[in-house]
Every structure is written in structure tokens, then in C-alpha cells.
Amino acid sequence: MSSFFEYFSAFLAQNRLIKKNSTVIAGVSGGVDSMVMLKCLLEYRKETEINLITAHLNHQLRGQAADLDEVTVQNFCQENDCEFVSKTVNIKEMARKQRISMEMAGREARYQFFREIGGRHTNSLIATAHTADDQVETVLYRIFKGTGINGLQGIRVKRNNIIRPLLFARKTDIYAYAIENNIPYREDHTNIDTTIPRNFIRQTLIPSIKSKINPSVERSILHLSEIFSDLEKLNQISVKKALKKCLLRQTSTEIALDISHLKKLFNSVIFEVIRESISFLHSDPATLDFNLTARISSLMRSGQTGNFLRLSNNITASLNRSELILRKNDSPNWNGFDITPGQSYANTFFNFRTELVSIGEYIADSENKNIEYVDDDKLTYSPLFLRPWQKADRIVPLGSSHSKKISDIFIDQKVVLHKKSHIPILLCGKSIVWVCGHKLSDLYKIDTTTTRVLKLVYKETTL
């Protein structure tokens, strides 16, 4: 009969998870799963040349118990000659500031910590101790919350550089291996709190299903996960084709999709197109549930520009005529720039630069709204400043003798609400020179008296 470690080695080989000379960063909490994973990786290190690093994040959620978790992991690493790296993060405060759940804050903090360590090594791998039991709980949780084909395949054995070398293992076998090999581990008392959905599934729901419906429910769920993993591969072919047809434009903060194409798709494909689009925005689509497809369909049927709905903590969907806009709702991360001619400026939303040119180099181009030219002599009386739009702002548009509210210009040019705060406004003192990419002021235009020209260049940030 094969030993637990033999199964572990075979699982690594079968899924080609770790190559020779890889750096493996093992996320170890001190619980039985991660401690067994670490023990197996230590044994594997004896057979294969790998660089093993243990990473432990102290979440500061359980007081002295959390500190004892860290000590347990650190001592085990010292005894086994394994590099140990730890970090302490106040997860409760992080969750409060970001307005997310503590579970999500913990997950983000852990993976950020792992990536920080991995960034110091070439071709590094992050190993997490997800088990077959975690797989069952995850699939059931997603079924109840609502999900698509992608969600029903559960936890992936490998995703990018993240590997799950214990995904084959059942909890009973993990405990048995820990006891047999005298592996120290810590029990987290929060695991018995059934007010936490996953704990309720583990502690109450699965035992009830086993006793009343199917004693082998875990095996059935794992089989279901394998089926949907295969279906997901087929579905992704349709999703990639659909996204290619639907995608109108893409920036660092938004994706625009063609509604007429979206309406022709199956709901499962719409769901995955939305998930894929959100991942383009460097946001986590894991919190999405399948119910959003019905909500998005309702939004598209409304046909009302400006209507929107919240898809996740930081993603909204809105209508802009024939477009569905998926938006990453980052508040503006800039207050303003003092502008020095000849220098460049950039932030999350745009790049801006100025350049002094001779009147002989000036060539009017009315087609390109991202490049403008102004009379530099008219800018000498006050400093230049770039800042976000404010509601009271007014400009004298080129060719006009009267000022106009910039808010009205945005309406005329159909600028969607969330983009207004990202469009920079160039001022000379308190007078507006340019609504970048939209309107130039008549007060600073080039005329027959102009001797020096300042070239203004604006570009919205794209991926």
C-alpha cells in the first residue's frame, strides 16, 4: 500500500507542479494542512533540487494564539533547516479601510505577501495547502452562492504560479500522516464557528447529506468538479471568441463591451465574458455569482444610458448608449501637478506633457483632440497647474466669447459620470486653459501675434 508521501510525489509528477531547481514558497499558517504540506515538501527536497521557503502571515486576529502559530512554524523550520519568512498585518484594520470582508482582506494580504517573496526569485512557485475537502466545500459553496462553469470546477491544481500539492488528500489522511510523523500543528478555534458559511458546510451540511442522502457525497462532488473542469476548457473557446467580438475598447480602469453582441450569447458565456473582462482590470472576479447575469441582462434591456449596478466591491457595470461599461471604481489618486514646460507627468489615469516649440513648428490638427497648441506668452502671468475637474469649473471654448460650464461640455460630449474625475484640467492661475482631450480655451489660442508656442499632449492610460 502506497504511503501518503508517495501519493504526494505522484500527484506532483502527474500534474507537473514542480520543476527541478524551482523556488517553492510554501504558505504555512501552522494548521495541520499546511504543516503536513511543508513536511512533504521537505521530504521532496531530499529527492529533488528545489529551494524551499516557508512564508507565514500573522493576521493579528487571534491575539496570543496567532503568535503561537507563528512560533510553531518558525521552530519547525529551524529544526528542518528551512528558510522562514514572516510578516504581520492587521487584517481587521485592512478590511475596514478597504470595506471588504476580513476573509477577503486576509486572502489579499497573504497572496500579496507571497508575491513579494516570489518577486525576489526567478520562476518561483507559491504552494498553498488546499485539500480535497476544501475542494468539496468550495464547489458546494459556489453552487449555493451562484456560479458559472468556471466556478464549478472548484480550486485549480495550478493557476499561473500558484500550486496546490495537497488537492488530492482527504483530511483524515492528513491528520493520520501528521500523527504518524510527529508533525506539530495548531488548531484554529474559528474553524468550528458555524456562522461562517464554509464552516457550516463542513460541520453541518456535509455530515447531514452523508447521513440522509449520499454517504459518498465528497466523492460525487469531486467527480462533478472534474467534469466541469473539462467543460470549462471547451467553454473558454467560446468565451475567447465572444470577447473578441464584444470588446470595443480597454483601459486600465474600464472595459467597454458591445451590447448587441452580448445579447446574442448564452448566459454562461456572458458570465465568463464578464469575469474575463474584470480580470483584465486587475480585479478579483472570485466574488461574482451567477445571479449577476440576470442583473446584467436586465440592465441591458433597460437601454437607459447612465443606469448602473454594482458587481463587486470595486466593480460596477453601467450603460452608455450601445455599450456596457465595466468600471474599476478607484477614487482619483491625484490632487494635482505643478506644471513645468518641457516635463512629463503621469498617474493611474493619464500621461501629460508639455513642449516648447517655435511658431514655425506649429501645425494645427483639429482631428487630434489629445494634442493642442497654445500661445506661451499668454501663460507667463500665472503658474500652470493640472488638477481634477470641479463642478463649478467654466471655460471659454475656442471660437466663443462666452464661458461655458465644463459639466455641460461633458454632457454634450457624452462623457460618462465615472470618467469625469479622471480627465485633467489645465489651469493658468485660476483660468482654465484646456479640458484635456475635449476643449481648449479661446483665451490662450494662437493668433497672428504669437511668437512662442507651448505644445500640450494628453493620453489616457491604457493597459
Which terms would index this structure?
single chain, 463 residues, alpha+beta, Phenylalanyl-tRNA Synthetase, Chain B, domain 3, 6-stranded mixed β-sheet, 5-stranded antiparallel β-sheet, 15 helices
**Main pleated sheet:** 6 strands, mixed
Count of the domains: 3
Question: How many distinct helices?
Answer: 15
Instruction: Give the terminus-to-terminus CA distance.
Output: 53 Å
Mean pLDDT: 88
Gyration radius, to the nearest Å? Answer: 28 Å
Task: Based on the coordinates given, report the CATH architecture of the largest domain.
Answer: 3-Layer(aba) Sandwich
Strand order of the largest sheet: 3-2-1-4-6-5
Class of the largest domain in CATH? Alpha Beta
Question: How much β-strand is present in the residues?
Answer: 15-25%
The counted number of beta strands is 22
Q: What structural class do helix, strand and pairing data support? A: alpha+beta
- Please mark out the parts with pLDDT under 50 across 5 or more consecutive residues, or reply none: none
Q: CATH homologous superfamily name of the largest domain?
A: HUPs
- The outline comes out as elongated
- CATH fold-type name of the largest domain: Rossmann fold
Can you give the helix content as a percent range? 25-40%
